[in-house]
Amino acid sequence: MIRTELIRPVGELLAAHSPERVALEDGELQVTYGELELRTRRLAAHLAAAGIEPGDRVATYMANGVRGAEAQLAAVRAGAIAVPINPAAPAAEAGFMLADSGARALVVDPERRHELGGASELALVAVAGESYEELVSSDAPGRAEPGDLDAPAWMLYTSGTTGRPKGVLLSQRGLLWVAACWGSIVGISDEDVILSPLPQFHSYCTELHLAALAAGARVRITRRFSTSETLDLLASRPFTLLAGVPTMFHYLLEAGRKQGLRCPTLARCVSAGAILPAALSDEFERTFGVLLLDGYGITETSTFVTMNWPTGTRPRGSCGLPLPGTAVRLVDPATGEDVEPGRDGEIHVRGPHVMLGYWNRPEETKAALAGGWYRTGDLGRLDENGYLTITGRIKELIIRGGENVYPAEVEAALISHESLRDCAVVGRPHEALGEVVVAFVVPVEPETFDPAPLVEHCARLLAPWKVPSEVRVIDEIPRTGSGKIMRHRLPVEEAASAG
Fold first, then answer.
1. Whose C-alpha in 273, 313, 418, 451 is 20 to 30 A from the C-alpha of 40?
2. Contacts of 46 (CB under 8 A, 6+ apart)
3. Is residue 12 classed as helix, strand or coil in its secondary structure?
4. pLDDT tens per residue across span 308-323
5. What residues are paired with 322 via a beta bridge?
């Protein structure tokens, strides 16, 4: 049952809870719901007083923390569009997003403002350090918080796994709909203490914050993900929920088995942002006795499309059922016809949380939203009960000798071997077969790594044409902040010459 009363302007959400309850905290700053409502209202008023009008873009280029979350909420409360930028992005990439979005205001950390150099002049307002606290501590003439929940409220840039990122326009209604849905499914309440190492420029983190704030929960934000810090926090604080991406849970499992993961109050974990291998989910739950729920979603759908429920059936490898109010269909990319259960097809999504469009890209928006459905570009299959399993992406599909090979399936087999820390699979052109499967791997012990047992392991789990023809050792798999593999940055040409 969806709590539709949660779908209301951000300011009303914050004011709905006891003002003394702690809302957000990081290693330096802690704010209650009353303080968060006041601080974001004041910052919104200062933005309005500086000339920011409804629909203007307000960029944030800040480290993970309370202030970064506040700046986004304040922009939305001012009627503007919040544009969070990856704090790890180099100045050139940040400058591209500032220019592409046409941002008229910038909230930036002191060191990042220095890095931007001349790009910081794009901003009408730039606040940092002590000046930020001055703004959130003083009143300014403002205006009433806009009540149009269907107007653009966030512009979140896509991960850029295949090239330059695009700005995705999302509404408050869409984001709050998903927050109400997955928050209800997971059971987030005002008794929860949530640990979030998620990057704040990502839609998954935006969703987590909104779901928590709507429920009156408490969120501890970490500056970045650190395996040791996460283990220490879980052991020393009464956290009830941990949100992460599959890579994080892999590292926690690896370290936790060696050090012992002590988390007596942790009741459930949620994974999204990338495909969660079934073997990882099984081993995590078996080792730590903590529920790990997987969900599927993307920026263009305000994160979640499907979610596994903590009760009932959870088919192995599935990412769950569609959220309430969400329609999912699988379509044959070649014919445009719906495919039968059990067959692979492109995932199309329709619902109140689908994006409004891509910023300044009308043709791409039209193509992506053709017929009223968002065409995800992801491949998956539905079982007879409606559970979705992700099998890959259309553009990443490898065709070897006429047989389809989905990288995600091969990666799931690879990562289940104890010798690997991380892996990624791509196709390499081959004169006779069209393409062959190449695996890039990060071994646990690079000095003593032998690929032969790994290939034998894959041969026991996969069809012959899916077994990697080549295994290449690499220092690190390039990933986005949400954990997605950036395959275009893997040295495929180098592998080809070596092969």
1. 273
2. 125, 135, 138, 140, 142
3. helix
4. 999 988 999 999 999 9
5. 306
